[in-house]
Amino acid sequence: MPRSSPQALLFVDGYNVVGHWADLKQVRDRLGLEEARRKLVEALANYSAYQGYDTRIVFDAQYQDTCGSREIITRNLSIHYTDFGQTADTFIEKSCADFRYDMRKFHQRLIVATSDRAQQLTVVGYGAEWMSAERLAADVEMIACRVQRQQKPARKTPNRLLAHSLDPIAQQRLSDLRMGKLR
After folding, report:
1. Dmax over Cα atoms in the chain, in whole Å?
2. pTM of full prediction above 0.85
3. Which of 58, 103, 144, 176 would be a feasible disulfide site paired with 88, CB 3.0-4.6 Å?
4. Residue 64: what pLDDT?
């Protein structure tokens, strides 16, 4: 069966989001940046799958002498590390500029999650939707709660009588025994 096109393309400014989510800031401060990145990826993997988004988390490699790379986590989520000297902002902005000329723009939303005000204005100028890091955190939490509610088994109506759990033949025999029809 062919894979349907994602509902939206979501770019996430990784370090910006880590710096704005309270729980990720605590993880970063206690356990380090690598663990905070891992928690962000885990949260967005579930969110992206549920929403049907093609999510791309972008991390700066601005101060590291490395080539840019891409790591595919799931079919809905990938991590992009920028080239040496390139910021996540410029990577996302260039992607938004390129999207303007892409045919997908007619049937797919483009969303950028960041709380960087300058980047917000730039990507909106390219036609992307903007979502704050705080809004993304709230949406991720809401989806996690919704999934948890859906996974809870439906409660059966409580029948306290043991006879209700018996098959119909056994129930009939028990009724006959009570009425004195059986000896």
Report:
1. 92
2. no
3. 58
4. 63
The CA-atom distances, in angstroms, between 183 and each of 162, 171, 174, 180 are 21, 16, 11, 7
**Average pLDDT, consecutive stretches of 10 residues, N- to C-terminus, the chain (183 residues):** 69 95 93 93 93 94 68 90 88 90 77 93 91 95 89 64 74 79 65
| Domains (range + CATH), the chain | 8-151 (3.40.50)
In angstroms, the CA 17 to CA 24 distance is: 8
Six-digit token pair at 56?
Answer: 């791309």
| Dihedrals phi, psi of 86, to nearest 5 degrees | -105, 135
Burial environment of residue 114 by CB neighbours within 10 A (0 to 12, 13 to 18, 19 or more): buried
CA distance 78 to 170: 58
Q: Are 100 and 124 in contact (CB under 8 A)?
A: no
Residue recorded with tokens 């088994």 = 153
Closest CA to 136 of 17, 33, 7, 9: 17
User: Which residues does 159 contact at the CB level (< 8 Å), separation at least 6?
Assistant: 165
Dist. CA 45–CA 74, nearest whole Å: 7
pLDDT (0 to 100) of residue 1 = 37
Nearest partner of 79 among 142, 30, 34, judged by Cα = 34
Residue labelled with tokens 């939206």: 8
For 152-169, b/e burial (b = at least 16 CB within 10 A) is eeeeeeeeeeeeeeeeee
